[in-house]
Every structure is written in C-alpha cells, then in structure tokens.
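Record type: monomer structure entry
Structure origin: computed from sequence
Chain ID: A
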Amino acid sequence: MEGKPTQYIILEDAYYVALDISENVKRLRPSYRLLEICDEASEAIQAINTRHPDMLIANTTVGDGDAISILQNASVKIPVIFFSEYEQQAARADALNMVDFILKPVTPHALECALERFDAQEKVFNK
C-alpha cells in the first residue's frame, strides 16, 4: 500500500496471545504499524476514536465482556479481523465490518489469509 503504513489495534485480554498475533503481523506485514494492544473493548473503542487505526484485530470475548456487542453499540466503522474459540460467533461478528473470522488458535496461515482479505478490501476501497 502506498502512503502511510497500515495502522492497527489488537483487542485481546490474554497478553501472550496478543503478543503472538503482533509478532506474526510484524513478520507477515513488516510495514504495518501496531498502535496499541487493548484488553477491554471499551479501551479499544477509546483508542479507535483517538488514534484512528485502519483495522482492528479482535477476540470476540475480552475482559469487559462480549466485544461484538460492545463494538456494535459503539458503531465502530473500521474493518475487523475477529478470532474466537467459538465458531458460532462468526455469524454475529459478520454484522460488524468483519474482514475475516479466525477460529482459535490464530495460526500464521490463518492470519495471512485474513490479512490478504484486508489488503484486497483496502485496494478496492481506496481506488
């Protein structure tokens, strides 16, 4: 992508899972820039509103509850790559700017596929 690097936020309350995701994104997309790791959806919403990331990578369940509902209620408009250990969350997540849904564990291959979908969406959106 041209211009400013893609900026993203991770919403995950398990620190080592968030760290693993950020390391994989760094390896898969060296130009992407991590702005923040949030462990609660309310914290992510505040970060989205102040830091204006291009994308959110989010667990469906975090420290303050159901991230899908919280993000929907806040009218979050940025693309989201969701991940969860519960496959049935995918249908609910689809209503919220979902780029992709990854069933845990978040493997490098699954993350690469999701990032490819995000990149393709961004190219179409920015034409």
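Annotation 1: Residues 108-125 form the longest helix (18 residues).
Annotation 2: The CA atoms of residues 65 and 119 lie 29 Å apart.
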